[in-house]
## 1
Amino acid sequence: MRHYFALFILGLILIFSSCRTDFDTVASSGDLKFSKDTVYLDTVFKNIGSSTYQLKVYNRSKNDISIPIIQLKKGLNSKYRMTVDGMTGNNGKIFNNVTLLAKDSLYIFVETTADITDADPADFLYTDEIQFDSGENLQQVALVTLIQDAIFLYPKQNADGSKEKIQIDGKTVDGFYLDENDAVNGNELVFSNKKPYVIYGYAGVPENKTVTFDAGARVHFHANSGLFVDKKASLKINGTTSTTEKLENEVIFEGDRLESLYDNIPGQWNSVILADGSTNHTINHLTLKNAVIGLDIKNQDATTVSIKNTQIYNCVEYGISAQNAHITGENIVINYAGLASLSCVYGGNYSFTHCTFNNNWQNNSHFAVNLSNSLAGATPETNPLTQATFNNCIIYGSNTNEFNLDKNANAAFVWQLNNCLLKFNSSTTNPDYQFKTDPAHYNQIILNENPKFFNVAQNKFNIDNTSPAYAKGNQAYIIPLDIIGATRTSPPDLGAYQSAIFPK
């Protein structure tokens, strides 16, 4: 009996399925709908693959349809590639007889890898279109990509197939030394503003040489890449004040993904390393973002690292990490660092004036400023902190306490904050944190008041005249011009920016 019942059910299924028409398709009639009529793929460097972009195709009709062909207009010669509902078709260029069910949709994902020679020389745009069907049923969606030319610097490949290597802190890494007489690029120790640069691996500055970055230079680092300044070598960043939001005279260090999706993603490249024994560094008008460590300074030759008018954002570990260094800083802004915006360890000598050290990294274990005179594993473990002075500065962020002192009694530890707005929101009897009653270390401290930055999420640390930092600086420490070249008033505001009315 059970056997006959099963046969009966199977018969019903066959009868009803044979009557269904929704598994049959009709030819496309050119009435497809699209999520956009043009897919703009963000700017890419020549021969570097783009991100993947999405187009959604809708069948609004009540019929299942078959699209005879979906193809790139330039066919197999196109520099674009597609997948259509997970299918790769003919090299990602041509797809035949694609079924699209009634009231349903399909996804097309598009990417490109193109050379500057593929682009229109008038506007550097590379274009194509996705064609759906043909003849009177033809529908099209345009594809547009801006291709940017660049100078590429990378480790050479040896005869055995291995890559060129250099030594950094006792480790062997993919890298190369910049050559002032390179056969292709000329003097690689001078970075001009004519074209952007893309660096693969670590670009090293040889001993007794100086690398110079002209105003307006743009340097893009590939993943796991960076700049290494060897002992007895020097770094000169010669940016100047810009007059537009394009920062036309700023020197900019960032990753090599130009798509807007990557604008604020930390850790896209490694670091700028100033090696122990490197010398006479000057950094002016540098914007550095999205590294692991922004500036990794191990400069112990007693020459001063001068850092002025510099912005560092979105670093996985530190904005500036210094070990027994000698730094003077003016008009520095740092935000978003996984461990500390500024970390000065193993002693050293530091003076910071009109700086904004903020940290809004999304954890509760970071600091805006960390000072220490020791280093685990070092010999000896302690080293004198002979000076750490902060004048007219803001030290703030999203954590309860944004200022940390890690003091070892076996070495000197000298610090002083003058006319600073500081966030330290814990009650403590520790004598090192008595901000109101310890004039040897703290003078005119504004404690735990929100500086009312314009937009922290967008790294805009301007203030207006409602900020507690307004006109609270000491004229004795004034830097006449702020980070963008505005004239400071007297008494000056705290931080890197002269106050102004916020834009609407």
## 2
Amino acid sequence: MTDLSQIVKAYDVRGVVPAQWDEPLAELFGAAFVEVTAADAIVIGHDMRPSSPGLAGAFARGAAARGADVTQIGLCSTDELYFASGSLGLPGAMFTASHNPAQYNGIKMCRAGAAPVGQDTGLADIRARVERWSDEGAPEPVTEPGTLTRRDVLGDYAAHLRGLVDLSGIRPLKVVVDAGNGMGGHTVPTVFAGLPLELDAMYFELDGSFPNHEANPLDPKNIVDLQARVRETGADLGLAFDGDADRCFVVDENGDPVSPSAITALVAARELAKHPGGTVIHNLITSWSVPEVVRENGGEPVRTRVGHSFIKEEMATTGAIFGGEHSAHYYFRDFWNADTGMLAAMHVLAALGGQQGPLSQLVAQYDRYAASGEINSTVDDQTGRLAAIKSAYQGRDGVTLDELDGLTVTADNWWFNVRASNTEPLLRLNVEARDTATADRIRDEALALIRA
């Protein structure tokens, strides 16, 4: 049997196909998902990877065998699946490995209304059932199996987004979009259709082998083509989507990357204009500028751990209007608290098109500090290294420590966070300071401790 500990992650399933998992295993996951969610109906979508239709179909068969009626929406982005879950009121499963290389695939699962399924909210129970059935055999099908129905929700998804951000009155903009051969090539043309946008489409052909570059815009090498095209064509901005198009990265008119923290602050200001006094969630790696902008616009910032399930849980608890992460995940109350890069991109387009200045000038007010970006270090003993860093800073004058997520060390003019990877022998370092020299000094100091 496949070792499920290798593929069941914090809030999804992800592994190499077929070495780590295959269609018979996906069928068991479908049956287990129905049992754990107690669902009599579910919705399923998939991305463009060659293995996705087969895995999604197997999951659907497993779900139907347990009595659930299955709505299959076919090719979609992850946030389109969340839209379907929210608008139809059904638990959902999205077959994608997001930004991972071509040989991977996975499942992102949610309860009705796009509520997250993580280790503590059902995923551990799903895994336990799959492990038991793998050893003992799957349960007998129910007397009345569920039905399989196909439905196209792309148009409804686009209409919902366009009802949340009005782009009809903006000045004309030239936009380069790099879909990375992922699902942005499927959703962008419909969402942007008829808007005052001149669309320069890069790598819109759906191809799960990713022939041009990996669909992971967080890695700088994967946005080089986009940056060059923006500069060559004199575009107003560039957008890059990851493989399942739930994240969106932005470059300005000079081809320079715009920090996801700056995008979080920009969108937060716009959402607070609609919902005065609202709460905005930000993870502990986003810039100091985010809570500053939230307070300046009359909102209440709430700091939380990194990760999809933590952000969604905090949004539900606080009734937050918006949440943002350093990784370019953006969550909206008006989108069932789910993350959608497309809606964040539309906010950027609306903000840029609603005034005459360039994007670099617009975002400068939200990008206030020097940051290192995330730096990964391979270590033999994650716990030991974290303890050594804590010991080095504990008791130092003017410095505070907290362990909300990893270790965060904060002073008057700088902070850094070190977190252990859940899946690799890595420590992840993020540093921010009020000036570049200080950021570089603290980065080097922290790395010396991490890599000692």
